[in-house]
Every structure is written in structure tokens, then in C-alpha cells.
Amino acid sequence: MNVVKIVFSPTGGTQKVADALAEELAKNGGLISQIDLSDPAMEKADLCVDADALAVIAAPCFAGRVPALVLERLAKVTSNGAKAVVTIVYGNRDFDDALLELKDSAVALGYTVVAGVAGIAEHSLAHQFATGEPGPDQIAMLHSFAQQILKKVQNGATGDVEVPGNKPYKDSGAGKLVPQPTPACSACRACAQVCPVGAIGALPRGMADENLCIGCMRCRHVPQACSRRESRDCRRYRREDRERVFREERSPALPLTDMGFSCSIGYHLAMP
Question: What is 3-168+265-270's CATH topology?
Fold first, then answer.
């Protein structure tokens, strides 16, 4: 079966989860292609999923919701009624209503959602949570999920999938963190080149436009390190801002510990 990955992965974790699912779903000779929702150029392209392909739609969870940018760009891809696996990746706090929101959006766009997956990757802000995930054991679990999904698809899955979440979706009003250049910035512009929304301004300082920035942290995870430094050294947010966002984002039942979350929800698979 041919697989089309439709992915928004600013810091790389969502990409790893999508790759693990896709490689197993297509392991019997299927072709794998990708639509990168973090690339602004995709908005002007004529993109579609073949009707007989399986789409793996993967996005990170931001404060319990799907980033609005993901839904906007996903809507620019023609579904042709293809089957889809909706996938939310989170930092092991909670994915709240994000998986349900992504499923609802995919159905509204004409996809037949045959499964929902919640996977874990290292938290993009509090790196002490889910550090290094997904690792080998987690990749093996995702392969197992994919095998179960593929069997369902081959047996004629109808798309009647119930996934965790609530309506109305939780308020997405939690604040965002906007990384700004530090004295370590070498003005190499690597971060500006990969910003999904073009929020990083011109030289010399390369300040981020707080109205455009979505707080995705891609500028702090530039694939090629800025100059001779790690990109996390070149752009930082204020500690007090992180404290505020974490306090707004956390679930009421979860204690705030060490600037992060005390929780371990784990992986989740939903199928008909």
C-alpha cells in the first residue's frame, strides 16, 4: 500500500513517529511520499492524496490542541476520499482534545479515518520529559500499531473510529513562548530559513514577530547548528514566560513539578 505522510514536525519528534508508522504500513512494496506542512511553499502547490493511498496525518499537540496552522495547511491538500491514520505527538503530559480535533478535521476534509494514534516525543520545551523518545522500544510499539492498522485496512475498515477527547475542545488560550536572539547569535539566518511562518525578521538582530510566531520552537532545533553553536544557544525565551505557559497549559489534576508536568499517559491506538 502506498503511504502519504502529511506532517508538521517543527522539532523532529512528530517526524520520527510518522516515519515509524509509514515504513511499517508500506513495508510490502508500497511507496512512501511526504507533504511537509511546515513548508510555506506548500500553500501554493497543487497537492493531493491518491484515493487508493493511505495518509498518515501527523501533528504535534500544542497545549492540548492541534496548531491552527496545521489545520489551515491540511485543508489545502485534496483528500480524494483516501483512508487516513490521524496521529498526534505530545511530550507525555496529555494530548487532551488534539487527537479528536485532528480526526474531526480530517473527516470534514473527506478522509476516511481508519485509526487514531497518540505517540510520544521529547517535550519541545521541557526536555527532561520523554527525553530521547521515540527510542527503539517506542518505535517497535509504533510498528505494532501499524501492523494492526494495516490488517484492519486490508479487512475493509470503515472509518468508524472513536478517539479520546471532548467537545467543545479545550481553550487554546495558553500563552506561547517566542524565542528571541541571544548574544550568541551569529546572524547566520539558519533559523529564519526554516521558520514555518516567516516570523524571524531581517538582520542584524533577527527578532521574531510575536504576532506571527506560533511558538513551535523550530528555530531552536535548526537541523544544521547555527554557526559553531547549537541553535538552542542562539535563541532563547524568558524563564518566567515558560513558567507562565506551563501553569496555563497543565491539566488541573496534574501537579506542576520542576517547571514541567508529573504525568505519564503513554501511547494510544484507536481503531474501529
Answer: Rossmann fold (3.40.50)
What is the Rg, in whole angstroms, of the alpha carbon atoms belonging to the chain? 18
pLDDT for 205 equals 66
Residue 113 pLDDT class (50, 70, 90 cuts): very high
**What residue segments make up the domains of the chain, in order of their start?**
3-168+265-270, 180-236
pTM of the model: 0.84
Q: Has residue 262 got a pLDDT over 50?
A: no
Band of residue 18 on the pLDDT scale cut at 50, 70, 90? very high
Pairing of strands 32-36, 83-90: unpaired
Number of Cβ within a 10 Å radius of residue 33: 14
CATH number of 180-236, picked from 3.40.120.10, 3.30.70.20, 3.40.50.2300, 3.30.413.10:
3.30.70.20
